[in-house]
Amino acid sequence: MTTTETAAAEPALHTITLTVNGTRHTRTVEPRELLVYFVREQLGLTGTHVGCDTSQCGACTILLDGIAVKSCTILAVQADGAEIKTIEAYAEPDGTLHPIQQAFWEEHALQCGYCTPGMIIAIDQLIRDNPNPSDSEVRHGIEGNLCRCTGYQNIVKAAISAAAKIRGDAPFEKPEDELMAETH
Ligand code: FES
Ligand code: FES
Predict the structure, then answer these.
(1) Would the CB of 112 count as within 6 Å of ligand 2?
(2) Position in ligand 2 atom list of the atom nearest CA 119
(3) Is 103 helix (H, G, I), strand (E, B) or coil?
(4) E strands along 4-141, which residues?
(5) Which domains does the chain possess?
(6) Tens-place pLDDT, residues 81-136
(7) How far apart are the C-alpha atoms of 14 and 178, rounded to whole Å?
(8) Does ligand 2 lie within 6 Å of residue 86's CB atom?
(9) What's the pTM value of the predicted model, to 2 decimals?
(10) Which of 60, 75, 115, 142 is the best mutation target for the ligand 1 pocket, counting ligand atoms within 8 Å of the beta carbon and taking the most?
(11) N or C: more exposed end of the chain, with fewer CB within 10 A?
(12) Is residue 104 within 6 Å of ligand 2 at its C-beta?
């Protein structure tokens, strides 16, 4: 094989720079690399899940320039220069949960947890668009995110509870009597 043939067989690489969870990263990627694999494999942020690869399940949802997107539908090169937030940046550095995470815990809104990072980010988008969503508005807002465990009811309750916490209409901490009941 000649040098020219070898070069033609190799995909051209691109250097991209993204800010992910507040940190700038410059990496070299193939033009076909999906953003979800860039986040998981190049940056090691495995909280972003792959459930289908065909834009059905929403497990790969992240915030791209503040908008919830399915990261399996975007090439890494298309995100060059973007700001990304993944589930790893939702809790505070001291471990304090984001209100949506807190509500998921309180309302038992997860079982296996595979869908949960994508659900939380989709609900974050939903609540920012609509701070006081109804049951049906939550269901509409998460229709692109599939959960095979919970039956969705507790996820909807968690979203409504999280919205109330973010509005300041509900306590952030789990009520003490509920905690007591769980320990007895
Ligand atoms: S992995 Fe992206 S939608 Fe399922
Ligand atoms: S908690 Fe298992 S897929 Fe949703």
Answers:
(1) yes
(2) 4
(3) helix
(4) 14-20, 23-29, 61-64, 67-70, 83-85
(5) 3-89 (3.10.20.30), 99-182 (1.10.150.120)
(6) 999 999 999 999 999 999 999 999 999 999 999 999 999 999 999 999 999 999 99
(7) 53
(8) no
(9) 0.89
(10) 60
(11) C
(12) no
